[in-house]
Amino acid sequence: MKIAIVLGTRPEIIKMASVIDEIKRRNIEIVLIHTGQHYDKEMSENFFIDLNLPTPDYNINVGSGSHGRQTALMMNGIEEVLINEDVDIVLVQGDTNAVLAGALISSKLHIPVGHIEAGLRSFDDTMPEEINRKTADVCSKMYFVPTEESAINLISEGISRKQIFITGNTIVDACYRNLKIANKRNINEKSLADLDIDNLSNILTLTIHRAENVDNKVRLKNIVESLKELKNMNLIFPIHPRTKKNLEEFGLLKELEELNNIHIIKPVGYLDFLALLSKSSLILTDSGGLQEEAITLNIPVLTLRYNTERPETVETGGNILVGSSKEKIIETINKILNNKEFRDKMKNAKNPYGDGSAGFKILDAIEKFYFNDLLKIESPEDIMLSFKREIANIKEDITVKEFEDKNNSSVKMIYNEKMYFPYDDLNMKDMIVVYDKFNL
Ligand code: UD1
Ligand code: UDP
């Protein structure tokens, strides 16, 4: 078997790491394609070093640019590679333009796509990431979802349950594998050495880069104004290049730099960043990955957004959405700092993203599909089975699998007052089932 991996930005490198390790461990051939969307050493190469990853076989060097230009160049470059490399599956991760380009061009070439972190939805189509992940999910053959909640999003969009694998999120693999290594590192190896984080208290780690925050002067100014109020915390702010550029352009960088409790630093490598997180009392962010890492590392997180495609973190109590409202940010931070019970409740929120074995589960599922000849995408030679979509109210003890066998059908959705993921062995008694009835 030969697997191609498409990645292009910092979070994709981090979240693909355990998958790449597992592919190598199983001696499966790998083709690593970097789109070059992130190209600064601090945004790309350092993560290959920290996570011990192989140098990409191809770099498309797309660089920065508009969405259309970036996506088109990536598709062109990925197509050229895939035409020459006879791969069995292409893996993409998350919701960046690399995911859109990789999934779209692979599906056009009839190469199966495995989408890692599939099924997330913010239900906000103004986010480029929402369009990317939804399009990638239309193009995919295998869906590796972090939670049941994301699996149900896909089920309600009509995706077959047989293509969905609930694996947890590979970010947990990355955190668990690297945290000890990060904390044992010699101080000289650390790019954070100047900061002496071991002797700083009340650390608040801050990251912002989301287009809807940093491209919007009003929102960015509100956030900056709220930072000025956090005088009792040490703010550590590894700054994303997009954010730095916009803070400068909007004339906001200088006033931030003048605060004596803020440390604005270059983006840091993964090991240093994990060490920093593990010393932090609080995280303030609009990052997707950080919402997941916070709940994995038991650190309260405030998310500088009005919605999230990671609602599990809010439901379990580890994450609070504060938008870009100065009042809400300050009020929530004060509540966390001054109320131990509230703080502990946030810290102890259950991690919904699994036990750190996502990479292993993803490869198990791929091998199962490959060895059962389920990966092939071929033009059909059998006349299609006509089917009718039906609905039934189940009154007997019967599992999903038994129902399908008995009724020559495929179960699409089941629910009573809420929707459930249709596991093979789930008893459907007292539930409503929507199913496709095949007409042989
Ligand atoms: C991208 C992803 C976003 C993801 C983020 C992770 C899309 C649409 N966006 O956003 O989902 O959360 O990566 O960090 O795919 N720049 C540099 N050096 C670099 C990279 C970027 O200076 O190495 C600057 C350029 O000015 C560029 C800007 O940052 O125009 C934005 O970069 P871009 O890759 O377009 O989007 P991100 O904001 O990084
Ligand atoms: N990260 C890092 N160094 C930094 C900032 C972030 O290693 O200076 C890591 C962080 O631990 C997380 C990932 O980068 O795993 C998140 O990336 P980002 O916020 O850029 O993207 P998103 O997750 O929002 O797509």
In a nutshell, what does this entry contain?
This protein is an alpha/beta fold and about 450 residues long. About 40% of the residues lie in helices and about 20% in strands.
**Biggest pleated sheet:** 7 strands, parallel
Q: Judging by the overall fold, what is the CATH architecture of the largest domain? A: 3-Layer(aba) Sandwich
Number of helices: 18
Tell me, briefly, the overall form. Answer: globular
Q: Look at the structure and give the CATH class of the largest domain.
A: Alpha Beta
* CATH fold descriptor of the largest domain: Rossmann fold
Query: Approximately how much beta-strand content do the residues carry?
Result: 15-25%
Any low-confidence stretches, pLDDT <50, length ≥5?
none
What's the end-to-end separation, in Å? 34 Å
